Amino acid sequence: MEIETTRLILRPWRAGEEAFLAQFLQDERVMYAYEGAFSAEEVKNWLQWNLRLYQEKGYGLLAIVRKGDNKIIGECGLTDQIVQDETYSEIGYHLIYDAWKNGYAIEAAKAVKEYALMQLGAKEVVSIVRDTNLASMNVAIRNGMLVKRRFIKNYRNVVMPHYLFSTCTSTISQK
Question: Where does the N-acetyltransferase domain lie (predicted)?
Answer without folding.
Answer: 8-165
